[in-house]
Amino acid sequence: MEKHSLITLVKAYFEKIDAGDPTYIDLFHDEVTFFFPKFGDAVGKQALLEFGDKIGSSLNSIWHDIEQFNFIVSGNTVVVEGQEGGVMRDGTKWPDNHISSGRFCSVFECNDNLIARMYIYVDPDFPSRDSERITTLSRVTL
Questions:
Q1: Is 103 within 8 Å of 71 (Cβ atoms)?
Q2: Residues 34 and 48: beta-carbon distance below 8 Å
Q3: Angle at 101 (CA atoms; ends 32, 110), nearest 5 degrees
Q4: b/e 37-48 (16+ beta carbons within 10 angstroms → b)
Q5: How would you classify the pairing of strands 114-121 and 28-36?
Q6: Is the peptide bond before 124 cis (omega within 30 degrees of 0)?
Q7: Spatial distance between the Cα atoms of 19 and 132, rounded to a whole number of angstroms
Q8: DSSP string covering 31-90, please?
Q9: For 135-140, what is the mean pLDDT?
Q10: Contact 37, 122 (CB under 8 A)
Q11: For 133, which DSSP code?
């Protein structure tokens, strides 16, 4: 795939996720490999759907600042550095821009015009509730 097509495919994924469009799954290879912190490694569309159900149960909404993404393309690999935010089920908005800035990095590998691998690197404590680690690591006083 050419660079433009790879970026278009990855952008389509984020656009569908932000819109709550369940057809995002059609962008993936049947045997997609997937990683998300605390969920772990998984293989296949069914595992990706399971993850979507789990993460979706904790969120009212999610957004990605797609226009400001930094894309790095090498071969069929796309690395995306960006910012995201949303609203938790309890109404808590994130990032809080105090502790959390909503930064993430994801790595996609594409084959046959589909996403074959997606590894998401992000702090899954979206609303900054892990006070023990925040107290230990942060330069900000809670």
A1: no
A2: yes
A3: 20
A4: eeeeeeeeeebb
A5: parallel
A6: no
A7: 34
A8: EEEEEETTTEEEESHHHHHHHHHHHHTTEEEEEE-GGG-EEEEETTEEEEEEEEEEEETT
A9: 76
A10: yes
A11: H
pTM score of the predicted model = 0.92
The separation between the first and the last C-alpha atoms of the chain, rounded to the nearest angstrom, is 47
State phi, psi for 37 to the nearest 5 degrees. Answer: -55, 140
Q: What is the pLDDT of residues 7-26, one digit of tens each?
A: 999 999 999 999 999 999 99
Rounded Cα distance, 49 and 56, in Å: 10
- The long-range contacts involving 16-23, CB below 8 angstroms and separated by at least 24 positions, are 17/62, 17/64, 18/62, 18/63, 18/64, 18/66, 20/61
